[in-house]
């Protein structure tokens, strides 16, 4: 049974007239008759009751028409989705990103992308770097903006931006006037850090470990903005990237002496998944967008 046979049967079943159905389908009447006979032979039932030149859909034909309508509708749906997937003006893309880059970088990017691709459906997923990598491997998200983490061979990571980490203090802190600070000097300070599992927390832990110090942690959060606001409220200090796009007048950020601590932000994709045109378009736009940011 060939695909066009379903359409032939549907038209004939609705018109119950061989000549008019053939004219509507722009095929010869013998060709239409052969197609219907082939369907009936394959199904091993007659779909029409025939009386001379008159034909009428029987109970088997009614049941097959129900299935035919579903098949045709499903095929049209699939064709529409495939068409959307092959174009960049429509379709769907799911983008994952770190809590620490959403407000800082992606809010402006998403506005620009939606302005230029208004018919693209974008789903956003926020999580830590390890969780994002897992979601990507499972095919739940198409792309993710995250730090460089150990990846499986099927995950591709493309660098976008490098951010230096700074000791971040309230403006009233005793170290606020310093040009640089060593991590060792911070051993008596209370820290406000991201939760375990976040890449930025891992970098902070490494800095403290390399300095050979243990510190008190008063709060563990999930958002850089929350951490910064608590530091501004004089509840502790932190290691944070440059807060270029977040306005906190009550904070100072001081370079770490003797070590350029940095985090590398990039875009991850799954090499084992065939990317749609709109996913490729978003990836290219992200790379172009981040080229506008200098290393911070």
UniProtKB/TrEMBL annotation:
Domain HTH lysR-type: 1-58
Domain of life: Bacteria
GO cellular component, as recorded: cytosol
Chain ranges passing through the membrane: none
MF GO annotations: DNA binding; DNA-binding transcription factor activity
Keywords, alphabetical: DNA-binding, Transcription, Transcription regulation
Family recorded in the similarity comment: Belongs to the LysR transcriptional regulatory family.
Full protein name: HTH lysR-type domain-containing protein
Organism: Candidatus Kurthia intestinigallinarum
